[in-house]
Protein: SPT20 protein
Amino acid sequence: TSIPRHTNRLITEKSPYLLQHAHNPVDWYPWGQEAFDKAKKENKLIFLSVGYSTCHWCHVMEEESFKNKEIGEIMNKNFVCIKVDREERPDVDKVYMTFVQATSGGGGWPMSVWLTPDLKPFAGGTYFPPEDGVHRVGFRTVLLRIAEQWKENKDALLQNSQKILEALLHVSEIRVQGQESPPPSKEVMATCLQQLSNSYDEDYGGFSKSPKFPTPVNLNFLFTYWALHRTTPEGARALQMALHTLKMMAHGGIHDHVGQGFHRYSTDQHWHVPHFEKMLYDQGQLAATYSRAFQISGDEFFANVVQDILLYVSRDLSDQAGGFYSAEDADSYPTTTSGEKREGAFCVWTAEEIQALLPDTVEGATEGTTLGDVFMHHYGVKETGNVSPMQDPHQELKGKNVLIVRYSPELTAAQFGLEPGRLGDLLREGQQRLSAARAQRPRPHLDTKMLAAWNGLMISGFAQAGVALSKQEYVSRATQAAAFLQRHLFDPASGRLLRSCYRGKENTVEQSAVPIHGFLEDYVFVIQALFDLYEASLEQGWLEWALQLQHMQDKLFWDPKGFAYFSSEAGDSSLLLRLKNDQDGAEPAANSVAVTNLLRAACYSGHMEWVEKAGQVLAAFSERLQKIPISLPEMARATAVFHHTLKQVVICGDPQKEDTKEMLRCVRSVFSPNKVLMLADGDSAGFLYRQLPFLVSLERKEGKATAYLCSNFACSLPVTSPQELCRMLCP
Structure:
């Protein structure tokens, strides 16, 4: 390898995304005091560029502009240039994205923002082409114009930036308006269902025409709606929309039929041609959602998808030490000798490749049928490629095929005169051969940073799958990851979470010189994971840690004046705004999940202030929940859990004994959004008995495992028959 011409300060960073820019001719700084001091001392504007490693246009802008020597010189001469990985610093990203969205009407990454030396934004956008085109100004021109403005009318620019900041403070504030009660759950749930139903695609599932995102938050809302309205037509509709969407996604090209797992989103209405990056947060949430679909429907199809996702994560996104990596890129080199990366190159196929890999004649099929014929028919492979030019503006997928299930197993079998029972084995054989062929291709870039929040979502995925599919190995994997968090992403001295850690040399786990402290989302998703893990493993240590973290979250992020939690801590002078996210999107908003966490925490601790806090979060978002709950489906779901009060399902018994296991199996086989499971093992010195004195009064009847259904710490009559318990849990 040749010695790089340029090296900048990003070379000492740990984020794979920042390291990708360490040899640009741009004199990049990481976000931090050194850069801020330089801007102040030299009275220079700051150019802030924010992206992440699986962002396609971020790579394009780097290739065209940040690797261009001349443009680099203009940047270095006039600006202090700062590069941020938004996955490391979602707080910085959110402040300036709020500005870009408010001033340009759109937002996205790469985000390009110009700031005054005291970090106030005054100009911004997203991707800029290097030179002027017919419809857009080029990056070079923008840089020179802004530098000129700073020279000519500095004062106007500074005044303007102050005005902008005041306006942003005003629009971004979310707080309780006068009334302090949560919105009425029934209306919020009904409106949210109505809004989802109106935007639902009856044919292909999903809630937009295109692009189509998996949005597990919508599906979880629908499952909860169904569970609380099982016998109504609306309840049936909610369940049908969720299950149909999950089926169509699993059949689609957004699902990797050869390498498992799900890509980030589909560019078309049919879930066919995706953007090929794979994100950890999608795998975690989808594993949990497909597990619920299996719990509810009993359909093995959904259990198979869960196993498929968890196989992918265990194999490709897992660190030896137990943590989970963040993402795999969409772009890769088509062959080992290729000079440039192509989107989807790792995942797509020509018809010739498949025919060559699967030439075998199929016994008992129509004369002359090969394995390739069967496979190509089933997965919609065409000689000329199955990607429409509309879906492929850069002609990167011309002549290529993205596999998508086109027919039911029965139809494909009938097409070739096969016994339907044989098709599964044939497709599996094809899949294995394609998988082996793909292993010879250069792999896409892997982002090996490990984030507390996303690890939390993935632990929940493994824990819930372990419960729904009764697979102990999934619970063990979740436990291993939780132990990893405790070891590498938690500071026992201060009791605080850390945001990120990194895979170092020789597979060690490294921390950056100045560790980034956890944000609200890190606490919320980790606490949720620990509750899910307790219910799956019944190890009380996880509960104890969850409750400690909940106290810490209250201390660091709670807004006592306007209610709800801020996304970031107070006290960071480089952050202009403390914001609250009000959108359940690809990931749920932290405040949405916090509501359910608080209610669960109260059930395990008897600490009733947490129930009050949950109501206050809902009150702060009340207006939005009543008008556009479709933007907060996870919080809308939480209004119902709040309203119906969590039921504590207490099993008194010895966890090693068969009668206790039988009871637990029954509780775990039922999807019930408002139950909290606890095991009273009779150890009165244990954590749960110390927290919840009422447990002492609950006993095993005639020495048998006994269940109690409790609400607000008042309990039903004892039940010793698993069947009867099942009936009580499914009203």
Q: What stands out?
A: Residues 648-729 form one domain. The chain has a mean pLDDT of 95. Residues 233-251 form the longest helix (19 residues).
